[in-house]
Specification:
This protein is α/β, with parallel strands linked by helices. It has one domain (about 5-160): Ribonuclease H-like superfamily/Ribonuclease H (Nucleotidyltransferase, domain 5). It is built from six helices and five strands. The protein has helices at about 50-65, 80-85, 90-95, 105-115, 130-145, 150-155; strands spanning about 10-20, 25-35, 35-45, 70-75, 115-120. The protein has a five-stranded mixed sheet with strand order 3-2-1-4-5. Strand 1 (about 10-20) and strand 2 form a beta hairpin. Helix 1 packs parallel to helix 4. The longest helix has 15 residues, at about 50-65. It is globular.
């Protein structure tokens, strides 16, 4: 696909939080398109930090209404950035996630990732980057919220913790 066929660029900031690992967790996502901003967040009763970091990216990509969007994602998660940028995810898919965690979320991510043009930028967490700081606030507030959701994928993979 040629770059001129893509829609205008979308900036996305993401962060995940887990109060204990596992423990209550949440994610925060900030989408910026021109002058428009949209915040997304949700909290889960029992999950991990890595799952919430990945869920923040998934929620943002799933919120996009137009296919082939050009998206730059700023995240402080080496887990997410390295899995994509270093090709780990493609290898995990090839080996059917044998010995790997979070296959449910990685496959959900991969499905939506393929229909957009996505670039990841790793940022240092808690480094006064406004978008990242806002997502951290959203994620922590979600993790501390009431009416937390069940992270079905985590619960399925860790049924002995219930």
């Amino acid at each position: 696909m040629k770059s001129d066929e893509l829609s205008p660029a979308i900036i996305m900031y993401t962060d995940g939080s887990s109060l204990g690992n596992p423990g209550p967790g949440g994610y925060g996502t900030l989408l910026i398109y021109g002058h428009h901003k949209k915040e997304l967040s949700a909290g889960f009763r029992l999950t991990t930090n890595n799952r919430m970091e990945l869920m923040a990216v998934i929620a943002g990509l799933e919120a996009l209404k137009q296919k082939n969007s050009k998206v730059t994602i700023y995240t402080d998660s080496r887990y997410v950035v390295d899995a994509v940028e270093k090709g780990w995810l493609l290898n995990w898919i090839r080996i059917r996630f044998k010995g790997k965690k979070n296959s449910d979320l990685w496959m959900r991510f991969y499905e939506i990732f393929q229909i957009h043009s996505v670039k990841f930028v790793w940022v240092k967490g808690h480094a006064a980057i406004p978008g990242n700081e806002r997502c951290d606030q959203l994620a922590v507030a979600a993790a501390n919220g009431s009416d937390l959701l069940d992270d079905e994928g985590f619960l399925k993979d860790n049924s002995m913790l219930n």
